[in-house]
Amino acid sequence: MSKIGFVGTGVMGASMACHLIDAGYEVSVYTRTKAKAEVLLKKGALWEETPAELASKVDVLISMVGYPKDVEELYLGENGFLENLAFGTVAIDMTTSSPALAKKIAENGREKGIGILDAPVSGGDIGAKNGTLAIMIGGAEDIFIKVKPILEILGSSVILQGDAGAGQHTKMVNQIAIASNMIGVTEAIIYAEAAGLNPTRVLDSISGGAAGSWSLTNLIPRVLKDDFSPGFFIKHFIKDMGIAISEAKQMGLELPGLSLAEKMYQTLAEQGLSEEGTQALIKYYR
Q1: Mind listing the pLDDT tens digit for each residue in 63-116?
Q2: How many helices (H) and strands (E) in the chain?
Q3: pTM, entire model
Q4: Looking only at Cα atoms, what is the longest distance across the chain?
Q5: Which residues contact 270 (CB under 8 A, 6 or more apart)?
């Protein structure tokens, strides 16, 4: 499994592909705009003109794109990945997508002798740069074992959660936890400012206690510097929350915290902030 194809070299994907090159793998890439892959090409990545050409030349294909519709088109569309990957190869979709779509792709892959894993991640741009992502995997155990060494280059937590779709369901759990937490950490800082406290000192006090969280430690310092560059886009978080809300409804669950967070982020998107990072939630209050 020495030849790896990578589709989706955005905020996180570019760092992930770099780690694979540094580890000695032959990495081929495809992006809609070749210029976006320039850093990887200078580092030694190979360029392919189409996703189909990429798929036909690799042992392992990794995709990390924006939306479920992109995943479906790439894998199941005309001249898609499943028509071009060879028997015995493995495709790992690291996009946060629909559990039902993950199952559908896995079933189609099984019929063609192609191993499929759904493996969404958490950790944002920081986790991608440091190779410390949490990777949540759904699929067959034998396929997982085959590519686990590759995934361990990208993440510090690499866990098989169950059959196809289980990785996506686990990512929904992750996003549900983050959604309400983002409200909590943002309101905490708004309160600190209103009380006339020094927010940086407040963070020093509470980050290591019971209030501590990844968002508090990694995102709120950006807020205090008015840095709203995306470690994770608001538009993608809205997409994720929409999937989680839809899945919850199918299970007969009511999740008011998640619904509130989704409405707040939708408001920011309507104000033209969908390309900013999730820490821009503070602008809802300001």
Answers
A1: 999 899 999 999 999 899 999 999 999 999 999 999 999 999 999 999 999 999
A2: 15, 9
A3: 0.93
A4: 64
A5: none
CB 182 within 8 A of CB 215: yes
CATH of domain 170-285: 1.10.1040.10
The first and second tokens of residue 27, run together, are 């990495």
- What are the φ and ψ backbone dihedral angles of 242, each rounded to 5 degrees? -60, -40
Active site residues: 171
44 DSSP 8-state letter: T
Q: Which fold has domain 3-163?
A: Rossmann fold (3.40.50)
Chain centre distance of CA 72: 16
Please identify every stretch of the chain with a pLDDT value under 70, giving residue numbers as ranges: none
Beta strands in 83-128 (DSSP E): 90-93, 115-118, 121-122
- Please give the pLDDT value at position 265: 98
Tokens of 220: 């709120």
How many whole angstroms separate alpha carbon 29 and alpha carbon 112?
23
Residue spans of the domains in the chain: they are 3-163, 170-285
Identify the three-state secondary structure at position 148.
helix
User: Tokens in use for 184?
Assistant: 């909590």
